[in-house]
Amino acid sequence: MNQRKLAYDVLKKVILQKQYANLLMQKALNSLPADRRPFVTELVNGVLRNYALLKYQFQKNAKNKTKESDLLLLSMAAYERFFMNEKEYAVNNEYVKLAENDRGFINAMLRSVKQLKVPEGEDPKDLAVRYSLPEWLVRMWKSQYPEDLLYLMEDAGKRSPVAYRLNPKKADRNAPLFDGAEFFDEYGFTSSYNLLDSDAFREGWFYVQDRNAQQAVKSLDLQPDSVFLDACSAPGGKLFNALETVSEENCYGNELHPSKAEQLKERLKQLGYEVKITSLDARKLPEVYDFRFDRIMLDAPCSGLGVLKRKPDLRYNIQPEDLDDLQKTQAEILEALYGMLKEEGILVYSTCTLNKKENEKQVAAFLKRHPDLVLEYEHTFLHEEGDHFYLAKLKKGQ
Q1: Residue 398 pLDDT more than 70?
Q2: What tens digit of pLDDT does each residue of 41-80 get?
Q3: What does residue 207 show for φ and ψ, rounded to 5 degrees?
Q4: Which domains, and CATH codes, for the chain?
């Protein structure tokens, strides 16, 4: 299939139908030979990161009834020209052929844009266009993180580096595969190579996990005999981290979605572990376990606003009204897990979002409801390399 047509089909489903890009891209790329995949990946992710700015190039001259699908097509052409440095005449020719409707109109619109225009204003509406973010998000970050607003908006448009963590049960860092890898701690590393297509990855020598997320399990102060629960486990990185210290028989995982729970079990098998995994709403976990845990990890369901550079489609799928529902769910899960934690036990609450209502304020409200809990540590990963991430370490019964 034509690479641009494939990218166009994926983008329409993501932007117009609010589907998630990850599975769509996986299926699309599998239909292409390996040498054609980078172009489609760059085009899809690049348009997702810059869509508002790309549309802005055409909106002044667009007809009032211009279809969103046509604006998307025009935006793809603009991305190739201004971000991929493709020749204007070649790009215009390809997208006129790809047009579904009035090709004359598409041709005229493409020829009307000669250079990239960027709105210069500093109000949230202009910033939302310049950085291709929802205006409500710009306003929220401006209110909550005023000193970091510019940095956060710029960072959301960058590419996210891939980080890995070695599985000590199957490999060590001296293996030839890791020559050239940069280790940032005993097992965490980055590589200039894409290791995801390697046999070593499929055989469980290592797994993917953001470097900031790798800090969460360290905060649990795990001991070899700790009885540990990962309440919202998928895709599994924190559970895999814990197994570096905790025995398999003392380690428990849970994942709401059955398909993800099965994937988690399969990945555990590849890594060489066998752990009890339940597939429940985390609020119902007290109904399953009649004992308490020394350590609980809650990587809570959240709005994901800290991983926009890794998941650029989130900016089209998350709405401000979704945040209230998420905060309610987070609070209810925390309440359920509180009763499952032993005295002197530790609970680590984490999210991959930048929203103080889901982070600091959520934890503050939880502490107020339970005065026997002590906040030992709280940190938002803002300027560290990797995803933006929040975690809080809570100890019970001090």
Answers
A1: no
A2: 999 999 999 999 999 999 887 776 678 899 999 999 999 9
A3: -145, 165
A4: 3-117 (1.10.940.10), 209-396 (3.40.50.150)
* Residues written for the chain: 398
CA separation for the pair 155, 225 (Å, rounded): 41
**C-alpha angle 28/29/33, rounded to 5°?**
125
Whether the CB-CB separation of 3 and 42 falls below 8 Å is answered with: no
| Cα 323 to Cα 82: distance, rounded to the nearest angstrom | 35
How far out from the chain centre does Cα 129 lie?
22
- pLDDT averaged over every residue in the chain: 93
Tell me how far apart the alpha carbons of residues 195 and 203 are, in angstroms, rounded to a whole number. 12
* H or E stretch at 190: strand 188-190
Residue 81: the pLDDT is 95
Tell me the C-alpha distance between 236 and 268, whole Å.
8
- 3-class SS at 298? strand
Rounded-to-integer distance, Cα 221 and Cα 206, Å:
22
Distance CA 236, CA 267 (A): 8
Between 298 and 215, residue with greater pLDDT: 298
**SS3 (DSSP) at 191:** coil
Tokens of 14: 């993501």
- Across-strand partners of 293? 341
From residue 117, how far is each of 67, 87, 112, 152, 273 by CA, in Å?
A: 21, 18, 12, 22, 54
Pairing relation of β-strands 293-299 and 228-230? parallel
Looking at this protein, which amino acid is placed at residue 340? M
Helix then strand count (H, E) for the chain reads 16, 11
d(CA 40, CA 20): 16
349 Cα distance to chain centroid? 17
Least confident of 171-185, 217-231, 322-336: 171-185
Between CA 14 and CA 84 the distance in angstroms is 21
- Provide the whole-model pTM: 0.93
The tokens of 288 are what?
Answer: 């399953």
pLDDT value of residue 284: 97
The alpha-helical segments, DSSP class H, found in 169-309 are 199-202, 215-218, 237-242, 258-271
What was the pLDDT predicted at 26?
Answer: 86
Nearest Cα to Cα of residue 68 among 59, 57, 60: 59
350 token code pair: 């984490």
Q: Are 153 and 128 in contact (CB under 8 A)?
A: no
